[in-house]
Specification:
Number of strands: 15
CATH architecture of the largest domain: 3-Layer(aba) Sandwich
Shape: elongated
Protein name: ATP-dependent 6-phosphofructokinase
Strand order of the largest sheet: 3-2-1-6-7-14-15
Order of helices and strands: EHEHEHEEHEHEHEHEHEEEHEHEEHH
EC number: 2.7.1.11
Bound molecules: 6-O-phosphono-beta-D-fructofuranose
InterPro entries: ATP_PFK, ATP_PFK_prok-type, Phosphofructokinase_CS, Phosphofructokinase_dom, Phosphofructokinase_III, PKF_sf
CATH class of the largest domain: Alpha Beta
Pfam family, one: PFK
Subcellular location: Cytoplasm
């Protein structure tokens, strides 16, 4: 019998997390009369003592939460309980984390995260007999078995908006504008925003490019469209011509991308003598108000996740397929990492529009 559940957000934040937490609280307290505890800062809230949590009431989760970016619970993309960072390297703190779940008296946990976080949460659940249900979130939209993860749609809209802002200034100055967007190893944001925002060139990590092909496309615009400006969108994980990732710093525990926009921009300026400017959108894609689709998906996921717990269905991730919410095994979703496929409708659409994909 479930009476008390926990919810945590883990990994990089994104727009729509608060809408999901709100939906969980409303469904769990309203339909089932359960208590809901928000665990702070991902699993860190269960590792630290005193435990870090908040009792969540419906009054606290009003409609302002639908509109609010970030996560009211806090999050982290560094604290893996199985390799928790400390002064002398990393240690396994999974036992403390499981003990924290038990100390709080939780009967089940809803974890909202991307592939890395969900993988860790599943290991933790197996080790500690935690009744876990997962909700997918990631602006990168690279989790398997779900067409949409929370945060993706808003990130795409933000990137499209940036192209909308760049186009008039590119036209006014007859410049080549390069926009670097996020997407850790997958080009979903770049291709979707590039189509919606009218990019001339879209570069994604899944498709190899040549600078010559990009330059030919830019040159051709004056003949085919009588204009001397161009918009290029490039995903952060696109590699340089030698196949090396372009990174800000390697000192971190995982690669932090940044700089491919400038790399591409410099090459174009060198080859064409064009006036090039580069914008890197960075975390602007993560913050901000969630758009309508992210609010809707987050709300539907939250309600469905609570219902799964009520049915005693654990170890499942909610997923969006054909405008339905369904549930899949967490391990299948994590295993099925979803990069951009070459036969994806958006790749076909881009090619059909004559957008250059660099190849
Ligand atoms: O995975 C989401 C994401 O926003 C990636 O697109 C990006 O590479 C990364 O997180 C940035 O992480 P951080 O917030 O640690 O800089």
């Amino acid at each position: 019998m479930i009476k008390k559940i926990g919810v945590l957000t883990s990994g990089g934040d994104c727009a729509g997390l608060n809408a999901a937490v709100r939906a969980i609280v409303h469904r769990a307290t309203g339909e089932y009369g359960w208590e809901v505890y928000g665990v702070c800062n991902g699993t860190t809230g269960l590792i630290n003592r005193p435990l870090q949590y908040r009792h969540l009431s419906r009054g606290m989760c009003d409609t302002a939460m639908l509109r609010a970016g970030g996560t009211m619970l806090g999050t982290t993309n560094k604290a893996n309980p199985f390799a928790f960072p400390g002064a002398d390297g990393t240690t396994d703190r999974s036992d403390e984390c499981i003990a924290g779940y038990k100390e709080l008296g939780l009967d089940a946990l809803i974890g909202i995260g991307g592939d890395g976080s969900l993988d860790i949460l599943q290991r933790l659940a197996q080790k500690g007999n935690i009744n876990l249900v997962a909700i997918p979130k990631t602006i990168d939209n690279d989790l398997g078995l779900t067409e949409n993860a929370i945060g993706y749609s808003t990130a795409v809209e933000t990137a499209m908006d940036a192209l909308d802002h760049l186009q008039p200034t590119a036209a006014s100055h007859q410049r080549v504008m390069v926009l670097e967007v996020m997407g850790r190893d997958a080009g979903h944001i770049a291709i979707a925003a590039g189509i919606a925002g009218g990019a001339d060139v879209i570069l994604v990590p899944e498709i190899f490019y040549s600078i010559d092909t990009i330059c030919q496309k830019i040159k051709s615009l004056s003949k085919t469209e009588s204009r001397n400006f161009a918009l290029i969108i490039v995903a952060e994980a696109v590699k340089d011509e030698n196949g090396e990732p372009v990174v800000v710093s390697q000192k971190w525990e995982r690669i932090r991308y940044g700089g491919i926009g400038h790399y591409i921009g410099d090459k174009i300026a060198e080859k064409l003598g064009a006036d090039v400017r580069v914008t890197s959108l960075g975390h602007i894609q993560r913050g901000g108000q969630p758009n309508a689709l992210d609010r809707i998906i987050a709300s539907a996921f939250g309600v469905y996740a609570v219902d799964l717990l009520a049915q005693g269905k654990f170890d499942r991730m909610v997923a969006w397929q054909n405008r339905q919410v369904i549930d899949v095994a967490i391990s299948d979703a994590v295993k099925g990492y979803q990069s951009l496929q070459l036969d994806d409708i958006l790749v076909k659409t881009a090619r059909g529009l004559g957008i250059c994909l660099g190849d």
